[in-house]
Amino acid sequence: MDLRPDDATRERLAQARTLGRELIRPVGLEADRLGRPTPPDHPFFEQLVRLGLGRTRWTGEPPKKRAAVVGNARGMLCVAEELSYWDRGVAVSFPGPGLGEPPLLSMGTDEQRERFLTPFRGSDRPRWGSFAMTEPGAGSDVAGIRASARRDGDTWILDGDKSFAANASRADWIVVWVTVDASLGREGHRAFVVEQGTPGLGGFHVERKMGLKAYESTSFTLRECRVPAANLIGGEEHYARRAGFKGAMQSFNATRPTIAAMAVGIGRSALDEAAAFAREAGVLRDVRVRDRLERVRRRLRVARLLCWRAAWLADHRQPNVMEASMSKAFAPTAAFEAASLGMELLGMEGGRGDHLIEKLFRDVKAMDIVEGTGQIQRLLMARKLVGLPRDPA
Amino acid sequence: MIDFTLSPELTLLQSTARELARDRLAAVERRLEADRDVGDELRRLFDEVGLARVELPEALGGAELGALARAVVLEELGAGDPGAALALDPLGPAAYVVQELGGSEALTALAKPILAEPGARALLVHDHRPRFHESGGTVQGQFPWVPADRVDLLVVLEMERAYVVREGIHLEPVRGAGLRAAGASELRLDGAPIVESWVSTPATLQAHARGRLYVASLLVGVLRRAYEYSRDYALERVAFGRPIAHHQSLAFLIADMATAVDGCRMLVHEAAWRLDQGDPAVEACAGAFVECCEQAMFVTPNALQLLGGHGFMLDHPVEKFMRDARALTLLLGGVDAAREESGRDLGERDGPVALTLGESSWT
Ligand SMILES: Cc1cc2nc3c(=O)[nH]c(=O)nc-3n(C[C@H](O)[C@H](O)[C@H](O)COP(=O)(O)OP(=O)(O)OC[C@H]3O[C@@H](n4cnc5c(N)ncnc54)[C@H](O)[C@@H]3O)c2cc1C
After folding, report:
1. What tens digit of pLDDT does each residue of B57-114 get?
2. Residue B264 sits in which domain range?
3. Taking 60 as the threshold, does the pLDDT of residue A65 lie above it?
């Protein structure tokens, strides 16, 4: 057993901390104050690209035989926690292929990786990828998506509405999930790379959010949107093997503990701010205050360990559905408790609406919603633990 | 790098302890409880296997495997019967106090006779309010409950010192709220002569921390068993046309119970790992204890709830899990005192709060 990040990770954490203090935090506060996502032409993004950030994980080689390599989910998760400590909204706004990358890596063909990820290997300009599953009528119940695809010769025609997709309007391409036959449920699902500028892709609407304002959550429409067959991720054969839905869920699987770790980062930030405020107000040694800070730290510690365990399993290609869901079910509530306690300690200062803790209190709630709500995590766990049927009688 | 692998040695130890606890403790837990004793045969068996010696120095026949090994074993025994676990550990956490304050030689000298005599027990007592007073080298006072019917060596832990008495210990049996397999008595000291006494605040803190981790480890076992037992029941019991586990409110409850158990175990293992790294881990051990206590009062009453009225009856052990868990949380000063220790540094620190050992040096 070892409960320490290795030297390489610690080095990256130190860099993340510097970047966080000097750039991420100020940019996040600015976006929150102005109530808009950081615009794509903001110098911040150029700066990140110059620092070599915003690139793809893809090395240009076909993915290695999986079992042979130990992954680095742990290292990435530690860094994600640290970046979120400084500002989770800004961390999601970072250039890069984003959530569109995992499906390309796990399901895509070599040719598709080459086409869509190669631009993310260089550093010419900030570029984004996006991922769109959620629809106005289907979020948790992924099988209920209605955006459709029908084949027409060498192209597919996509129709439907998508909601809340991160960075969609600024993205070079969006991985869009659609169905070829809604009656087939998950087996009817297909993922397409839809490139920006494709006729029929439009109606971009940047949502106004309670928090996490620094990145855009964007709804858009597909209207008779023609996409080349070559953009069907994995090609027809992939879905013939009925692996479509699993592909999407696999990518979630790898990201859930990371989302949970981001919650830990927000929670830690709230805890530090709350403790600093209490110290200044002279109530840090007040037993009632300290006991509650103690509980918050303890729960965040549990949360971090749950995240680490899930990532450690992922790195060793061990099944981690239970552990990933556990971390994702637990961490957001622990982090919420931290931010909420912070508000109570602030008292009237919190009511003003201009304290960092107040922002964290708004930011943190999303962590219990994105990538599967707390309820959905419990559902997944219960399926494993007690065989909860998918469709209760 | 972050790694949760238990060494092959620990895995083997774990499965040995698990089997013994299941077949020899859990299987007869009601009898052990009624007998208020584990009996000579069990004592002999456990002594042969040496589970109580995994952490002890070689001089006492111990394996010196460290705090994590101890935590792993205690979880298993706690899942068997935590009262029996106490009874089958002749030195228990009393050894920590003697070792931390008196050193290895004192430990060897005081522990040898206990280990040599089957059924002999050393007992550690500590309460958040003083129970004893000393005059002229002897001690008077009363302790309302100890989970023992026999005490050969009493170690009294106070805030800045600890002392040992061997004679003048009087035990009056009481019913006991839980942990009855270990016995249950009111303990009185009547001019008991102090045979050893040490003063050291850091050492008492350290000993107390290790003692708390000991109790927390047992709690993890109780919680795990309560969770597993009630989950299995919920899969069998049918109401409104399906297993009750398939009603979502209970399915989610079960998922939360599983999470609580894992969370407790992770804090216990983390604290143990810190100790094995040479960190005092005073705050981490106290935190693990508090977490286990809080979750004990989430997991065990809900385990009973999952069985409904049947859970209230003695035919199922879930009522015992709830009582045993509550009793464990009262030991070594209880929850609030541990919370005090777990949060003490928060009142004093300036700058970022660390969650993990060495975190302040990461960046
Ligand atoms: C800030 C933000 C960013 C996002 N980014 C993206 C993105 O980049 N790409 C993307 O595709 N999506 C994104 N989403 C969407 C997100 O994934 C969905 O909001 C989420 O999955 C929940 O779906 P829903 O909003 O439709 O809620 P619903 O599914 O309608 O759920 C409503 C409530 O019912 C509960 N519920 C639903 N089903 C069950 C059940 N079976 N049992 C018990 N309770 C249940 C839910 O837990 C929830 O509490 C984002 C959302 C937010 C808030």
Report:
1. 999 999 999 999 999 999 999 999 999 999 999 999 999 999 999 999 999 999 999 9
2. 203-362
3. no
The nearest CA of chain B is from the CA of A340 a distance in Å of 17
A228: phi then psi, degrees, rounded to nearest 5: -60, 145
Residues B322-337: what's their mean pLDDT? 97
Please indicate whether residue A373, judged by its CB atom, sits closer than 6 Å to ligand 1: yes
Q: Are residues B135 and B261 in the same domain?
A: no
Residue B44's identity, in one-letter code, is R
Proportion of chain B above pLDDT 90, given as a percent = 95
Nearest to A2 among B1, B241, B339 (CB): B1
- What phi, psi does B233 have (nearest 5°)? -60, -45
Q: Is A273 helix (H, G, I), strand (E, B) or coil?
A: helix
Domain count for chain B, please give it. 3
Mean pLDDT of chain B: 96
CATH number at B134 reads 2.40.110
Instruction: Please enumerate in sequence order all residues whose Cβ is within 8 A of that of B324, keeping only pairs 6 or more positions apart, or say none.
Output: B81, B82, B83, B178, B179, B222
Residue in A closest to B242 by C-alpha:
A393
How far from each other are the two terminal CA atoms of chain B, in whole angstroms? 16
B156, B184, B200 — which closes off a domain? B200
Task: Write out pLDDT tens, residues A117-134.
Answer: 999 998 789 999 999 999
Q: Is residue B3 part of a domain?
A: no
**pLDDT higher than 80, residue A170:** yes
> Domain coordinates of chain A in residue numbers?
129-240
Predicted confidence at residue A392, as pLDDT, reads 46
Give the nearest ligand 1 atom to A375 CA: 47
A68 falls in which pLDDT band (50, 70, 90)?
A: low
Supply the DSSP string of B16-46, one letter for each residue.
Answer: HHHHHIIIIIGGGHHHHHHHTS-HHHHHHHH
The whole-number pLDDT of residue A247 equals: 54
CATH number, domain with residue B278: 1.20.140.10
Q: What's the whole-number mean pLDDT along residues B16-28?
A: 98
DSSP A280-338: HTT-TT-HHHHHHHHHHHHHHHHHHHHHHHHHHHHHTT---HHHHHHHHHHHHHHHHHH
How far does the centroid of ligand 1 lie from the alpha carbon of residue A332, in Å? 14
Note the CATH number of domain A129-240. Answer: 2.40.110.10
- Contact residues, chain A, for B234 at CB < 8 Å: 386
B145: three-class secondary structure by DSSP: strand
**CB-based contact A3 B258, cutoff 8 Å:** no
Q: For the stretch B194-204, what's the b/e string if a residue is b when 16 or more beta carbons lie within 10 angstroms of its beta carbon?
A: eebebeeeebb
In order of A85, A214, A305, A369, the CA distances from A261 in angstroms are 10, 19, 10, 14
Of A99, A164, A325, A371, the one to substitute when testing ligand 1's pocket (max ligand atoms within 8 A of C-beta) is: A164
CB atoms inside a 10 Å sphere around CB A130? 26
Do B111 and B141 reside in the same domain of the chain?
yes
Domain assignment present for B178: yes
In a domain, B320, yes or no: yes
Burial class (CB within 10 angstroms; exposed 0-12, middle 13-18, buried 19+) of B351: exposed
Average pLDDT of B164-187? 97
Q: How many residues does chain A have?
A: 393
Quote the minimal CA–CA distance from B2 to chain A in Å: 5
Instruction: Say yes or no: B44 and B60 in one domain.
Output: yes
